[in-house]
From TrEMBL:
Membrane topology according to the record: Multi-pass membrane protein
Keywords assigned: Cell membrane, Membrane, Transmembrane, Transmembrane helix
Superkingdom as given in the UniProt entry: Bacteria
Transmembrane domains' residue ranges: 52-71, 83-103, 115-133, 142-159, 171-188, 200-226, 232-250, 262-280, 286-303
Major localization listed first in the record, in broad terms: membrane
Segments forming domain EamA: 16-156, 170-303
One Pfam family per UniProt: EamA
Subcellular location: Cell membrane
GO cellular component annotations of the record: plasma membrane
Name of the protein in its database record: Multidrug DMT transporter
Length: 309
């Protein structure tokens, strides 16, 4: 345990793993978009999107639980309290977050969606300030978060930003999704103090995925057109979820929330760059470079202080 703590509190290791997680989550944007095309899911078909997400997270959870069992972890010997905690985490971190996310995205522009989704960092840092005595807000953290947010805005700069309209079921739902995500991350950090990270992440993804699938099906959603290509894409999404969520929870277990959460600003950066690559667009746009520099500067500012758990 002490060896793990020494490894996963090393700033360079934290930066590499957190960046890798954000790269995986960023790659999900073009992958999901391609998935909708392969499975013939229309942009307005939210129930089918929930079913699709449910399949993804169920498989991701099963992958982690099988790996945990293979590594000798106890995945069935769980107390009633732990089972309830894991179920709550699954509903919060997976089910609720993605319900609000998918509905919100369908009722706003892509530019606003990316910006609203990035508010998860602010919620994480603010919640950590009130929950943990060693993770308080200071001017350095505030400036770092502001720089990261400006970076995301500069990457998404367009005339859409001049539209100041606000729809509760659009931008509002995306902010709720971001808040729920922050709550889930902190709740997961609490659970990993007494339970294995792989087991916690596996069950939360599995339970949350089951709920998403059932809610989607009960609302009339369905996912067909399984081919070799579409199945491989779904498997990739499941693998990236299992890897990213488990590694992220591992970082949160051993580190303060603020210095880890600031890396979330990299997700839309990677998402934009990878989407451009798949669409054969120019990734070396001026605004992308400016955004990356600002986000990296923000990450550096938040992590400049000595990291303690």
């Amino acid at each position: 345990m002490l060896k793990n703590k020494n490894i996963f509190t090393n700033k360079k290791v934290v930066a590499i793993i957190a960046t890798f997680c954000c790269f995986l989550w960023g790659s999900a944007f073009p992958a999901i978009k391609n998935g909708y095309t392969m499975f013939n899911i229309s942009a307005s078909d939210i129930p089918s999107k929930l079913v699709f997400a449910g399949y993804r997270f169920i498989i991701a959870g099963l992958i982690l639980l099988v790996m945990a069992k293979t590594c000798g972890k106890k995945i069935f010997n769980i107390s009633k309290k732990n089972a309830l905690d894991l179920s709550c985490l699954g509903v919060i971190q997976t089910t609720l977050q993605y319900i609000f996310f998918y509905i919100g995205v369908s009722n706003t522009t892509g530019v606003k969606g990316s910006i609203m989704n990035s508010t998860v960092t602010f919620f994480s840092v603010i919640l950590a300030h009130y929950i943990y005595v060693n993770d308080k807000l200071n001017m350095q953290k505030i400036l770092g978060c502001i720089l990261g947010f400006i970076g995301v805005m500069s990457m998404n700069f367009s005339t859409d930003l001049l539209d100041f309209s606000f729809r509760f079921n659009g931008e509002g739902f995306l902010m709720i999704a971001a808040f729920v995500s922050a709550v889930g991350a902190i709740y997961g950090k609490k659970l990993t103090k007494s339970m294995d990270v792989m087991v916690v992440t596996g069950y939360s993804l599995f339970v949350g995925g089951i709920m998403l699938m059932l809610l989607g099906m009960l609302s009339g959603g369905s996912v067909y057109h399984f081919t070799m290509d579409s199945s491989l894409l779904l498997m990739y999404l499941a693998l990236l979820s299992s890897a990213a969520f488990s590694l992220w929870n591992l970082l949160l277990k051993y580190n303060k929330v603020g210095p880890v959460s600031i890396f979330n600003f990299l997700i839309p950066i990677f998402g934009s760059i990878l989407s451009a690559i798949f669409l054969n667009e120019n990734i070396f746009e001026y605004k992308n470079m400016v955004a990356l520099v600002l986000v990296c500067l923000g990450i550096w500012m938040v992590n400049k202080e000595k990291a303690t758990t």
